[in-house]
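Worked example

This section walks through a single chain of length 379. The input is the sequence exactly as stored; nothing has been trimmed or padded.
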Amino acid sequence: MGNLRIKMTLKKSLILYTLIALLAAFLSGIILFSFFEKWKIIIADVNGVPVKFVRNRTMVFTSDSMTIKAVKQIKLVDIIEVISIILCVVISVIMLVRQYYKRILEEPISILKQEAEYIGRNDLSFECSYISMDEMGDICRAFNDMRLKLIDNQKKTWELIEAQRQLNAAFAHDIRTPVTIIKGYAQMLLEFYESGSLSEEKLEEILNTFLIQADRAERFSLTMKEIHSMEEWSVDKKKMSFQSIAEQLKSGAEGMSNDNISIKVHYKNDKREMFCDINLINEVADNLVSNALRYAVENIEVSIEAEDDTLYLYVKDDGKGFSKDTLYKASRPYFTTEKNHFGLGLAICETLCKKHGGNIELINSINGGAIAAAYFICI
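Given that input, the structure is written out below as tokens.
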């Protein structure tokens, strides 16, 4: 019986258990009938009553030869016989129900109850496992599938929350860059204006920088409304000359300099044309320069190079360089060695570089200081 639950459905196993119970009741009834018939014969024999049997083996007593005592005793045995047979059937049914519940239903019901209690506590660690080919096995498997889907949905929800948190932090982190550049050029404009040494050419350069940075801030703001994570950032490559790319990067980097730290940008004249997303490259450049500003002592050097269809960007500072732990973990989201800093700059750079077919590497200069090298495939 222990293995029947593995091979049969609930309906078939219930029919089988019922048949077994009926068979047991029938056999018990035959045994009881035979026992009580023998008992009646003994009573008749003790009282000297002649007995004859008919074909169906029913005992017939001639009333005229029976004593009143014998009749009463035989009638009592008849009552006991009926009650015993009824009790036999009832006991068989009770045993059937008990065995059926114990062997077929008790274990899966207990497992399902435990699973419901765990889920009610928002604990999805309990595995609803019950090996059986019947309906109870199907229900347990369905509950376990539901548990796994809840785990998957919970994981996706947490990933979505984390992605949104990272996106919000990235927005707060990166929106400061164009604001810083605009602020720097505004101060420069004010100084030139007060000294009266502002040429029309320089004024036009500063105003163009204002427009570029304002456009970047607006584009970044609109992008943040449309996407739910940095992974959804779309790459919009356009044909540009290397010279134009380098000039935009130079303008952005120099606009981030301050009274304490100077930023020098180096690039060679190159007439080649490249397909790139200048806004994406600007985001990476600004993040790398922004990071360098936090650790530089006096100078930051930015080098822009092109080789074949690849654009290279190097940002070097004269600070103390990266520690071993920082070199290993720097590009991880939220890793930072400073308070009140998100720790997202390099993680954003790595994500955006990969979207442009490139990547980012961090090394320490042999002359001291840190170097962040980013490259972009521009085809």
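What to look for: The two ends are 72 Å apart (CA to CA).
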